[in-house]
From TrEMBL:
It comes from Rhizophagus clarus. InterPro entries: F-box-like_dom_sf. This is F-box domain-containing protein.
């Protein structure tokens, strides 16, 4: 929808075009992601208008914001003219501290360039401090960039900042060794100094930071220091939207929670790994006005013990704003399941390891009585015994809008109830696109009913419904289920995976691929887990049909087993 709107906005028009003049077009926007986007200078007739002055500034801004993840296209946009450049640069530099796939390779040149650019925006006296600390900034001492790029920063990701600084150090050392033919290195105090000064610079110059990710050790202390030392940080953090914290730095985090509770009242997302519960955290949650996404991982107690911390001060604070929360993700919590009824506006619910080894059916029973009418995604993963009957009722009550269902458990106490689970999904989840859950080899009719009812299903991950998925893995034949999928699956099915103890034969797999080939279905991804019994040459068959355009991707995958 958005692509269509922007494509129309970018269509070439000419005010009062004359019929006898040919309109020449050389500049083009292509918003179809399957093609490379390009922008080229052009003219329209002799007295025509360029795109830059045809499109309203608000329209341009919306287009550029839509292209935020496409740095190459945004960079091209910045070269069109002065106005486009001034509009694009703030967007291009709003989230520079990111790596799509972070690899522990400090020598990425991208990181070096970004940090070097930020160094160039430092005031002269700060640059002089760097030199006094033995940090070489001489190449950029007298360089003054066109823009103060630090003012545009909106996202601080500490892990990425650390890796980029590491990259800058690596490249700087290489240059010094090449020019001076002598080794050079920076000690840990110098690295900490660099990180602290950069953070101070960001908090001084950026009018607002929207996201802070404290996702590497010792980074909380650096953030705390900047908040306490830089007066501008209070105003800068007033519009904080997201806070992520994964590390155990109690004193520093308590200070951050306290400072944010005084100024940051509009946080939309909290993603916290908790090693302790404090008044400061409770206060931070209690003052929020826009909190809608909450992720909490409990590391307060050993993994074998689930502390009912949610019933304390933090729990009470959450209950006060439960109506505003749309995304709830809890891990290793002994969460009172009956409290979920307070979260009436939930769109996503993720429960990981919420019970313990002593949980019985009565402990899960409250989940079967919950009705969450707006729920679109349900993810459940457990190491403790589970009962499919509970999910049958839960889906009856909450399934009308579900698009995504994941149910993982290696200790299913009523594995024969998988048929009821599939029927409940088929009858209540007509919008379903993703299913990852248990099934038995004899559930052929139930699977067929699900495939008929859920016409939008695009991803299917099937586990054997057994009382255990660990060694020795019980084996189930997948061929009859495979035949049903071959007959009933639609063109929308993009991924099929068999997980844990299935057995398949070459005939069933080839029949499946041949059927999709005859019906000219789009290519599909096929995956099998390492504990499945597959025939020799499965990769050769998959490769054959990949060459024919039937298979998009294929490989052996790993799925965690909960012992």
């Amino acid at each position: 929808m958005m692509c269509g709107v922007f494509s129309q906005l970018c269509c070439w028009v000419k005010r009062n075009p004359e019929s006898n003049k040919t309109i020449k077009t050389k500049r083009s926007f292509n918003f179809n992601k399957s093609f490379n986007r390009s922008i080229m200078r052009s003219s329209i007739g002799n007295n025509g208008y360029t795109m830059a002055n045809l499109l309203h500034s608000d329209c341009l801004l919306r287009i550029f914001e839509y292209l935020e993840e496409d740095c190459a296209t945004l960079y091209s946009c910045s070269l069109v003219d002065r106005y486009w450049c001034q509009t694009v640069i703030p967007i291009l530099w709003s989230n520079t501290l990111r790596i799509k796939e972070i690899k522990e390779k400090p020598e990425t040149f991208q990181g070096y360039l970004i940090i070097n650019t930020y160094f160039s925006t430092l005031p002269t006296e700060t640059k002089q401090l760097f030199i006094e600390k033995g940090i070489n900034l001489s190449p950029i001492m007298n360089y003054h960039p066109t823009f103060n790029y630090s003012t545009y920063l909106r996202v601080i990701d500490m892990r990425c900042l650390f890796l980029f600084v590491k990259s800058w150090i690596q490249h700087t050392i290489k240059q010094q060794q090449y020019q001076q033919n002598q080794p050079s290195s920076y000690n840990s105090k110098q690295v900490q100094f660099i990180l602290q000064e950069l953070l101070n610079h960001f908090f001084k110059n950026s009018p607002c930071i929207h996201i802070i990710r404290i996702n590497i050790s010792d980074s909380a202390e650096l953030i705390k220091n900047s908040i306490e030392q830089i007066p501008q940080s209070k105003k800068c953090l007033a519009n904080l939207r997201e806070l992520v914290s994964y590390w155990d730095e109690r004193q520093a985090m308590d200070s951050i929670f306290y400072e944010l509770s005084q100024v940051a009242l509009f946080i939309e997302k909290l993603d916290l790994t908790l090693f302790h519960i404090t008044v400061e955290l409770s206060s931070l949650i209690r003052v929020q006005r826009n909190l809608s996404q909450l992720t909490i991982c409990n590391k307060i107690s050993p993994s074998a013990h689930f502390d009912p911390w949610i019933e304390g001060a933090v729990g009470f604070a959450l209950m006060e704003m439960s109506n505003s929360i749309t995304h709830l993700d809890l891990e290793k919590e002994k969460f009172p399941l009956d409290s979920l009824s307070n979260f009436s506006n939930l769109v996503e619910l993720c429960l990981k390891y919420t019970g313990n080894e002593n949980f019985q059916q009565k402990d899960w029973l409250p989940l079967s009585k919950i009705s969450l009418k707006k729920l679109e995604k349900f993810y459940f993963e457990s190491k403790s015994p589970i009962y499919l009957e509970i999910f049958v009722d839960f889906i009856k009550n909450s399934g009308n809008n579900l698009r995504h269902i994941t149910i993982h458990g290696c200790q299913i106490c009523d594995p024969e109830k998988s048929n009821s689970l599939l029927i409940s999904i088929a009858e209540n989840c007509h919008l379903l696109k993703f299913f990852d859950g248990p099934i038995r080899s004899e559930n052929i009719q139930e699977l067929g009913k699900l495939l008929d009812s859920c016409s939008n299903l695009s991803e299917l991950y099937l586990h054997p419904s057994t009382s255990r998925c660990f060694s020795p893995v019980p084996r189930m034949n997948f061929d009859l289920l495979f035949n049903e999928i071959t007959i009933k699956s639609k063109n929308d099915l993009e991924k099929l995976a068999i997980v844990h103890g299935w057995k398949i034969t070459s005939n069933s797999l080839e029949n499946f691929f041949e059927s999709r080939k005859r019906r000219s279905f789009k290519p599909i991804g096929f995956y099998w887990e390492s504990s499945c019994i597959v025939f020799k040459g499965i990769s050769n068959i998959c490769q054959k049909y990949e060459n024919l355009g039937v298979v998009q991707d294929f490989k052996q995958i790993y799925y965690q087993k909960h012992y």
